């Protein structure tokens, strides 16, 4: 099975490390030729995860996306959702053929509010059976440090998900398989919004007691939304306390590595959205997601008052303190 990786941010770099540590040869699409030369000469990404070292014999790097796709049976896409359209829009509609596509994206495409599989189906006529998502509580920095982590590989074709997951499994990475492809992706999008809110609460100097109540309520709201967005069964048999759902919400709300939490913390401390974006200099998917999810929930009449309040703080100029005074009244 020949893997291609698309993207060169922190998550793409961590996934490239896992695959090459496991002796897979990878074809890796990196946008910038200077980054490619640096990685080839110095054997680490100049911008992210400096401690992740790479063996040149296990990878071929190129800024030619068509070439990387042609060489690969399985494409792992780890580009932030805001850049998906600019990266993929020039490709021919039949470029993916029957290749398997694994999304590592935890966001919705801004503008269309689509999950990546919906975008691929619309633009490239790909099949849901060939699509998988990597989800679960996993910060790239901890993968680079080889701290034990758990990733869930989700796909309607569970057998194929298992085969792909097998290439990632190793002594610091345990893999789990799941078939709830829409549910896990929406949970991954929502947890970023709630983590951004947890950061706001922290910036406003709420304490751990409040935070635990906030996260417990956010978890219920997340599950309510995910259940409504299902396309197949009602999800009754699914374990929403599993790591792909609750686990990822917890790590993103609590971890000091979380960019969403960092972004929210700055908002809580009084930074404007622009200032927080400049200061962070990395992607906090929860910002755009708050608007996309707010719109989707409004259109579908789904009540998600915590996420809606975070949207109001970020996009509608509601002061963070009044937004959280409102959230206080919602919690049980
Ligand atoms: N970092 C992490 O620990 C994890 C990230 N994810 C998800 O992975 C996805 C990728 O995020 P990260 O790697 O963390 O992002 P990052 O903030 O580490 O890197 C940003 C990436 O975007 C690229 N970029 C910047 N401007 C661009 C443009 N105009 N066109 C195309 N690319 C551009 C940069 O070159 C860089 O590769 C996100 O959806 C994120 O939610 C999922 C799990 C863990
Ligand atoms: O998805 C993640 C952890 O599972 C990464 O979260 P952040 O984007 O907030 O850093």
Please, could you describe this protein's structure?
The chain has 332 residues and is α/β, with parallel strands linked by helices. It folds into 2 domains: 3-179, Rossmann fold (3-Layer(aba) Sandwich); 182-330, N-(1-d-carboxylethyl)-l-norvaline Dehydrogenase, domain 2 (Orthogonal Bundle), CATH 1.10.1040.10. The protein is 51% helix and 11% strand. β1, α1 and β2 form a beta-alpha-beta unit. α8 crosses α14, α11 crosses α12 (273-280) and α13 packs across α14 (305-315). The chain starts with a strand and ends with a helix.
Order of helices and strands: EHEHEHEHEHEHEHEHHHHHHHH
The stretches of 5 or more residues where confidence is low (pLDDT under 50) are none
How are the strands of the biggest sheet laid out side by side?
3-2-1-4-5-6-7-8
CATH superfamily of the largest domain: NAD(P)-binding Rossmann-like Domain
Number of helices: 15
- CATH fold naming of the largest domain: Rossmann fold
Residue-averaged pLDDT, rounded?
Answer: 96
**Radius of gyration computed on alpha carbons:** 19 Å
Name the CATH architecture of the largest domain.
Answer: 3-Layer(aba) Sandwich
Helix content: 40-55%
Q: What is the β-strand count?
A: 8
Strand content: 5-15%
Name every ligand kind in the structure: 1,4-dihydronicotinamide adenine dinucleotide, 1,3-dihydroxyacetonephosphate
Structural class: alpha/beta
Which geometry do the CA atoms define? globular
- Biggest β-sheet strands, sense, barrel: 8 strands, mixed
CATH class of the largest domain: Alpha Beta
Number of domains: 2
Distance between the termini: 49 Å
């Amino acid at each position: 099975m020949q893997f291609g990786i698309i993207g060169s941010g922190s998550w793409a770099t961590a996934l490239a490390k896992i695959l090459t540590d496991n002796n897979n040869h990878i074809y890796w699409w990196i946008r910038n030729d200077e980054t490619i030369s640096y990685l080839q000469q110095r054997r680490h990404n100049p911008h992210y995860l400096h401690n992740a070292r790479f063996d040149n014999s296990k990878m071929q790097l190129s800024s030619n996306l068509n070439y990387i796709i042609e060489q690969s049976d399985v494409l792992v896409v780890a580009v932030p959702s805001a850049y998906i359209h600019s990266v993929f829009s020039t490709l021919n509609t039949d470029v993916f053929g029957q290749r398997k596509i694994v999304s590592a994206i935890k966001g919705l495409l801004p503008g269309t509010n689509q999950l990546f599989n919906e975008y691929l189906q619309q633009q490239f006529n790909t099949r849901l059976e060939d699509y998988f998502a990597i989800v679960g509580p996993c910060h790239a920095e901890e993968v680079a440090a080889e701290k034990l982590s758990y990733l869930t590989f989700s796909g309607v074709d569970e057998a194929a998900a298992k085969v792909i997951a097998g290439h990632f499994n190793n002594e610091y990475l345990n893999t789990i398989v799941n078939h709830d492809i829409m549910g896990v992706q929406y949970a991954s999008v929502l947890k970023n919004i709630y983590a951004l809110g947890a950061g706001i609460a922290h910036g406003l100097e709420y304490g751990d007691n409040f935070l635990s109540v906030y996260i417990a309520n956010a978890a219920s709201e997340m599950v309510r939304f995910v259940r409504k967005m299902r396309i197949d069964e009602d999800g009754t048999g699914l374990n929403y306390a599993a790591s792909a759902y609750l686990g990822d919400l917890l790590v993103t709300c609590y971890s000091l590595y979380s960019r969403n939490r960092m972004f929210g913390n700055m908002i809580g401390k009084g930074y404007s959205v622009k200032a927080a974006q400049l200061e962070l200099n990395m992607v906090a998917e929860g910002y755009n997601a708050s608007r996309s999810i707010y719109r989707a929930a409004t259109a579908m009449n789904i009540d998600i008052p915590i996420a809606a309040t975070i949207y109001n703080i970020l996009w509608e100029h509601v002061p963070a303190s009044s937004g959280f005074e409102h959230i206080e009244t919602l919690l049980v």
